[in-house]
Structures are given as C-alpha cells and as structure tokens.
Amino acid sequence: KSGEYGELSPSLPGSLQKYLTSKKIGKLYSHQAESIKKIREGKNLIITTGTASGKTLCFNLPILETLEKEKKSTALYLYPLKALTNDQLKVLKEMEGFLDFRLQPAIYDGDTPQERRASIREKSRIILSNPYELHQVLPYHYKWENFFKNLKFVVIDEAHRYKGVMGSNVALL
User: Fold this and answer.
1) Phi/psi of residue 127, nearest 5 degrees
2) Which of 31, 36, 38, 170 is the most exposed place for a label (fewest CB within 10 A)?
3) 160-163 — which CB contacts under 8 Å span 24+ positions?
4) pLDDT tens, 68-79?
5) Rounded to the nearest 5 degrees, what angle is found at the Cα of 103, between the Cα atoms of 60 and 24?
6) Is 37 in contact with 58 (CB distance < 8 Å)?
C-alpha cells in the first residue's frame, strides 16, 4: 500500500526540519501528522502502525518541539527491553545534534552507575528507563523532585508487551 501523507500546521521548528532533511524525510505520513497534532493538543494517544512506519517520530518530534519551547519540561520514556532503550538513546542523541538546546538524554536503570544517577536526575530532560526501575525509584521521589515536577510526557513504548500480571502492575505503576 502506498503511504498517505499529512500536513502540519504550524510546521515544525527549523531544527527538527533540518533533522528530517538529514534523514531524507520530505513529508510526514498521515499518522505522524495526526499524532503530532493530538500531542500538541495535550491529548493522550496510542499509536499502532506497522514495523518501520515511523512511530518514533510520532512522539519524538512533538516532545522535542515542546522541550524547546518549555525550558524546564521533561519526558520519561519507558521500554520493556534494554535493546530498545539503547536504540532510542542513539536516536535522541543524534536528534540532539540538530537542536539549539541540550536534552542530555540518558538511560536510568539497574545498570546505571551510582556515580551518574544524581547527575542524570538533575540534568537530563529525557530519561529512558523501564517499569521495573520506575517502581524502584518512586519511593525516592524526593530525589526526583525537579524531574517529576516538570514531567510533561510519559511514553510507554511497546505497550502490547505489558499483559497479564505484568500489565496490571504497569497499569498501577
């Protein structure tokens, strides 16, 4: 099936347009444009499309757009697998190279060295983790005060993986 394209109004900031151009993305797919519109409106959504259809851009573009405008806002990305977390970190670091501000995205999980944890909590605008780690850190919310009081977005990637008891636990979390 041929892709269907959509239009954004207003268009993305120049820094994000430069990123898209570097990836040879001239137009956004209709599901991307619609997702960005809904996120801009402050709506919650679930994005369900095929593999390699650009789901990551559906949330990264409007989140980075917001973080550029709102200098203190933060985002939490949750992944069920370390490989996905590492892949997303690479994407965010690449995107950061096109931005006019520092994201300092970082992974915060059981493998994060103790000496890096405080710095990540205080400086990272996007923290990538998993539900297990989030469950571990919530009792220490006072250490996360700055990050959580400015939390604007929570992304739960691969939500279909959270079923059964695990799904119930993540829902309560």
Assistant:
1) -115, 130
2) 38
3) 161/80, 162/80, 162/131
4) 999 999 999 999
5) 45
6) no
